[in-house]
Amino acid sequence: MQKLFFLFAIPFFFLSCTDDATEATDTFYVRNEGADMPVWVRGNLDSGKIILYVHGGPGDCAMCYRYYLKGMESEVAVVYWDQRIAGSASGNVDPKTLNYEQYTEDAFYVVSLLRQQYPGKKIYLMGHSFGVEVTWQFLTTNDNQSMVAGALIVNGTFSNYRWMDVMRDWVIREATEQSNAKALSFAEENPVTKENIQELDWVGYYRHMLDLGGNELSLFSNKKFLINYALFTPNTTLAQFSHGKGYENYFDFEMLNYDTSDKLDMIDIPVAFLWGKKDGVVPIEIGYETEALLVNTTVDWTIFDDSWHEPFVSENEKFLEAALKFIREN
Fold it and tell me: What are the CA-CA distances from residue 115 to residues 4, 50, 169, 220 (Å)?
């Protein structure tokens, strides 16, 4: 039934193009399980290569980050997809569908749409933060990885148990170096184990991590970004920040169960890691653990020494060049 449903969804897609074939301005909507998810295709389709940006959050937006990713569009096409209830997505979505299985199915339909609309083009996934979780889940489900030519992984985890354990180590290290007794005491009193992961105060860890400088860069301190966000993206403040309550089911029950550690040996497509070295949100040690699990492929690394959780923000030119180099070579 799912593939039939995808075919029925085709008439809901909207398409507009410029006269210049290399400057795609195609816009589609994928309708699935109550969600109407916009998909914007921009850039150079004549390159034969498409990057699908899988945004973070959950609940972030895709087109608002075009401000930082647009520099790739002269060389390749970039696709911006707002996930269910995120960004400017709409519909009547049951919060119970905010689970990894559903996100994976949504991603499958988006990739299938791109393959149908642009046959013969190579598709690469570029996941950031939560988008990495969706990316790993997609790639390790059925034969999905055969649908794409490679994956770019930006500061994201393969397991939320390992993420929390590594964040705890990061907090202990930084709290010790910064003589932050409160954060150190919290970490010592809240060990991370597989058995207690569902009851863990992960929000407390997150707050201490931020207090210790784990992600000092704020997108909203960039006035040009704010102007672009307000005037030149399909997002509105109301749309972006009014849906947080919908994720309660995800954060309470779904999130900390996520673990693809026993599946990553399935992956044999090329993979690139682009990692901000200063990141406390998803410390670089998670990247090293992930690489060790990717036993059937090799990982192309680019480390951004002066970046936190969003290296495409803090070292934009270096990030875009590293991403494009991987795409050119694969």
Answer: 16, 10, 42, 35
Distance CA 309, CA 154 (A): 8
Provide CB contacts within 8 A for 57, sequence distance 6+. Answer: 83, 86, 129, 130, 131
pLDDT tens digits, 223-252: 777 777 676 677 765 555 556 667 887 887
Count Cα neighbours of 294 within 13 Å in the Cβ-side half-sphere: 23
For residues 157 and 282, give the distance between their C-alpha atoms in angstroms, rounded to a whole number. Answer: 7
Task: Report helix, strand or coil for 157.
Answer: coil
Tokens matching residue 137:
């889940």
The residue length of the chain stands at: 330
Per-residue pLDDT tens over the stretch 3-50: 434 434 443 443 334 444 467 899 999 999 999 999 999 999 999 999
The CB-based long-range contact list for 116-120 (8 Å cut-off, 24+ gap) reads 117/26, 117/28, 117/41, 118/41, 118/45, 118/50, 118/77, 120/48
CA distances for 112 relative to 3, 49, 254, angstroms: 10, 15, 26
Assess contact for 47 and 74: CB atoms under 8 A: no
